[in-house]
């Protein structure tokens, strides 16, 4: 059995998933405006200049510290409820074409992303991929993030996860494909017989040209709903529930203010 492995950020979707969720996270009170701006600036630097292991490790530790104390279930629900708003408009049409091609060829589709599992899992479900690899944060006994990570799906970590998956499923890696935009994913690309650089950063483009790897440029993000049907019933229900809850909270706050005044 062969597989096609896809990085997520700037390979399947046009932006970094965490940065894409930034404004929605801010509106929900998870992040402050300066945090969102720092995330956007970091993604800009990463896009144009790449990032070494030390830089990525610092970014990971910062994100984990910010998430410490958040409830995992709340963030998982948040990511799913905002999928249509945040991710749906920025999926590359070319990536969806490749999904269809590899599926028709009988290959397993696998998302491999350094983004947290809470973001990757619902997108993998809606894209209809067979497997996914994602960063797994550590959770305490009360279901809250500790600020540490159980598994980090980045660089060599992605390659290790792919090797485990290949062993479990009996995958033929020499006949498999891998797609990514970043030189940090060289260990993943080196595992397969068909490595492909997509919208590559400077270092990956140089390496792909030197090794004679295929280079693709994706530039057509489309609404996911135009290509993959999305069940909008739970989106509407979630929005209605959120509106009721927020309305109730606002009402309670108004009553408390009136009580204090009297």
Q: Which keywords apply here?
A:
alpha/beta, globular, 9 strands, Rossmann fold, 262 residues, 54% helix, two-stranded antiparallel ribbon, disordered C terminus
Question: In total, how many domains does the architecture comprise?
Answer: 1
Average pLDDT across residues? 78
Work out the radius of gyration: 20 Å
- How many beta strands in the DSSP annotation? 9
* Main beta sheet: 7 strands, mixed
Instruction: Give helix % range.
Output: 40-55%
Order of helices and strands: EHHHHHEHEHEEHEHEHEEHH
CATH topology (fold) name: Rossmann fold
Describe the structure.
This protein has 262 residues and is an alpha/beta fold. It has a single domain, classed as HAD superfamily/HAD-like (Rossmann fold). The protein contains twelve helices and nine strands. The chain has a seven-stranded mixed sheet with strand order 5-4-3-1-6-7-8. The C terminus is likely disordered.
In short:
The protein has 262 residues and is α/β, with parallel strands linked by helices. Helices cover 54% and strands 17% of the residues. The longest helix is centred in the C-terminal third of the chain and has 29 residues, at 233-261.
């Amino acid at each position: 059995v062969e597989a096609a492995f896809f990085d997520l950020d700037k390979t399947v979707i046009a932006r970094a998933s965490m940065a894409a969720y930034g404004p929605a996270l801010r509106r929900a009170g998870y992040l402050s405006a300066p945090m969102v701006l720092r995330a956007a600036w970091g993604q800009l630097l990463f896009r144009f200049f790449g990032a070494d292991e030390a830089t990525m490790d610092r970014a990971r530790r910062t994100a984990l510290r910010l998430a410490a104390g958040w409830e995992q279930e709340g963030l998982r629900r948040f990511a799913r409820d905002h999928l249509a708003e945040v991710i749906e408009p920025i999926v590359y049409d070319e990536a969806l074409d490749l999904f269809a091609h590899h599926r028709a060829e009988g290959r397993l589709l696998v998302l491999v992303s350094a983004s947290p599992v809470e973001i990757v899992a619902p997108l993998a479900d809606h894209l209809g991929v067979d497997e996914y690899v994602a960063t797994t944060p550590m959770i305490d006994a009360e279901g809250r993030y500790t600020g540490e990570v159980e598994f980090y799906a980045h660089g060599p970590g992605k390659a290790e996860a792919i090797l485990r998956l290949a062993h479990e499923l009996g995958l033929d890696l020499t006949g498999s494909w891998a797609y990514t935009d970043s030189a940090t994913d060289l260990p993943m690309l080196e595992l397969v017989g068909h490595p492909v650089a997509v919208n590559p950063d400077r270092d990956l483009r140089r390496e792909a040209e030197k090794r004679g790897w295929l280079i693709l440029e994706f530039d057509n993000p489309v609404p996911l709903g135009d290509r993959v049907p999305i069940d909008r019933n739970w989106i509407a229900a979630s929005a209605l529930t959120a509106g009721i809850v927020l309305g109730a909270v606002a009402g309670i706050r108004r009553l408390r203010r009136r009580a204090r005044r009297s």
